[in-house]
Specification:
By secondary structure, this protein is mainly alpha-helical. It contains nine helices and no strands.
Length: 218
């Protein structure tokens, strides 16, 4: 952590003694910021408002984060990491590429259903990027891990003879695009989208898409 003065003027304690407490406070601030952005929108989520949500002073946030941009960056990292951990843990419980692919789709929607404010926040942040470079960097951070995970599952399925011949990277992008396309509709209108129903349909769709000719009479 950066060497700074604590807001009340005391010097920061040694790293070994302060790391756990400081990291807990950072996580608390990040979670509060996510809640604030999801409810009020990014434009209204000032540091002062986020501090009020936590019940701390704005200077405490300034101690832990070097401005609003760093806080937003940490929010994005937290949102993506949380989702990726959840999905990977569910996928790892499955045996075989076909079951893993279904697990990936189902876990993606299960996480959405349990963490709506995460996705409302993410979409709002993505829409705030004003340059092509910023959007490109965000897309790489958000999508590269997802595509690599899916690509590994798809390649495993081909190597094991479960899946037909196709380009894994292309299909990985298609699968993630379908998941996120539903997510965007759900973020904008929660009542218009049946997440569980969409998860079931996409699981069947990509099971059929990856199937070898003649599998189960297909």
């Amino acid at each position: 952590m950066r060497s700074k003065n604590i807001p009340d003027g005391r010097k920061s304690p040694g790293r070994k003694k302060s790391t756990f407490i400081e990291e807990a406070r950072r996580r608390q601030i990040v979670r509060s910021a996510i809640t604030t952005i999801a409810s009020a929108g990014l434009a209204q989520a000032s540091l002062a408002r986020i501090a009020d949500e936590v019940g701390i002073s704005k200077s405490v946030i300034s101690y832990h984060f070097d401005g609003r941009d760093e806080l937003i960056e940490e929010i994005v990292n937290a949102l993506l990491s949380e989702s990726n951990r959840f999905i990977r843990s569910r996928v790892e419980q499955r045996t075989g590429a076909r079951a893993k692919l279904r697990g990936y789709v189902e876990a993606s929607f299960a996480f959405m259903a349990e963490h709506r404010e995460n996705f409302v926040t993410m979409v709002d942040i993505w829409g705030s990027f004003g340059t092509t470079e910023a959007k490109s960097a965000f897309n790489a951070t958000a999508y590269d891990p997802c595509r690599r995970h899916l690509e590994a599952i798809l390649r495993q399925g081909q190597q094991d003879g479960e899946f037909r011949d196709f380009t894994p990277r292309t299909l990985a992008a298609t699968i993630q695009g379908a998941i996120d396309g539903v997510m965007l509709q759900w973020v904008f209108d929660e009542e218009a989208v049946d997440l569980a129903g969409c998860a079931a349909e996409l699981a069947v769709m990509f099971d059929l898409t990856t199937s070898r000719p003649g599998r189960d009479g297909r």
